[in-house]
């Protein structure tokens, strides 16, 4: 059993969002990674795909996700399931917070960029 307490070392800030790593292989989880995401109003992440399914539970506010050309609003109390290997883009029409879960071996690809990269907060 592992009890994980987030520390400042588990926080990754990008121009688009703040991610706080929770469960991950580096913190005792063998298979899953979980993290929180917060975005300020007007922020948007890049279009990208992830090699593993992701489950986003919105805990405050609302996000808009564009997936395969369709945009949906997901609000606090709702859960979004994004399939692997599909292009998506997250936008914050208002501030939001979410908890995300994914298999720990997922990596990201961005159209036009070479190769893939790990998600540091999920490692």
UniProtKB/TrEMBL annotation:
Coiled-coil spans in chain: none
Ranges of residues in domain Cupin type-2: 36-99
Domain of life: Bacteria
Protein name from the UniProt record: Cupin
Organism listed in the record: Streptomyces antimicrobicus
